Amino acid sequence: MKTIGATSVFKIYICSMTLNYKNISINYTVKGQGKVLVLLHGFLETIDMWTDFVPELSKTRKVICIDLLGHGKTECLGYIHSMDDMAEAVFAVLKHLQIEEISCVGHSMGGYVALALAEKHPNLVNDLCLMNSTFEADDNERKILRARAAQMATTNYESLVRMSFVNLFAPESKVPFASEIKKALDIGLKTPVQGFIAGHKGMAIRPNRYDVFKSINGKKVIIIGEKDWIVDKELVLKKTKNTDIETVIFSEGHMSHIENKKELSYFLKRFVEK
Known about the structure:
The chain has helices spanning 3-13, 54-57, 83-96, 109-120, 140-152, 157-166, 178-189, 193-204, 210-215, 233-240, 256-259, 261-271, and strands spanning 15-21, 24-31, 36-40, 62-66, 102-107, 125-131, 220-225, 246-250. By secondary structure, it is of the alpha/beta class.
């Protein structure tokens, strides 16, 4: 199926809604029937990152995509969006929809949010995939970089976003995926400065949630990009060795939904199988 066809189907049949939450609007979409699969995007992303995957996944699942705080059409709650804050916003949508059990895939920051959701509501998350994400907390060096980025955002935002975004991709990906990268960057640039700052500050204070991840009863998977400098591949592999956590390694960088789209599509279909 061509990408244009997949996008067209998505736009025609998807149900897009908003939920009033703490005096802001949360944007989310629902498509399909069956057991629930929640897809959570990463930093500087929106629910649009899942557009080409939802039509196939929704053939067997009810697929819910949610714009996280300060991203897409969901508004900001303050200048620090902790992962717990974002998780509670996600939970508000699920509670509104009367959903009690989910499988979840979280990309990068979305994985951090999913872990917070699993910790706060342990009976909710049955299966969890951390896609280009980790259970580790930020080290001191990363915290310093986040603080610096939050400060720079107040004076040179567009250049900062462009630089940050391009570095998410493997060097070899930048030419063959130039149009996809530009499209994703254009979406990222629409993230408000407040959302950028609040997201960075929230990620910097997140705790290590390795034990939370291990405690999930269903499928536990981590997708790692071979050339992803953000996720410490060796540390993840060391900590998941001889556990029931599955690790999947793709060939490229942090943006598997663009750089390893075919492989990710195959994996996601397998992930939702029971």
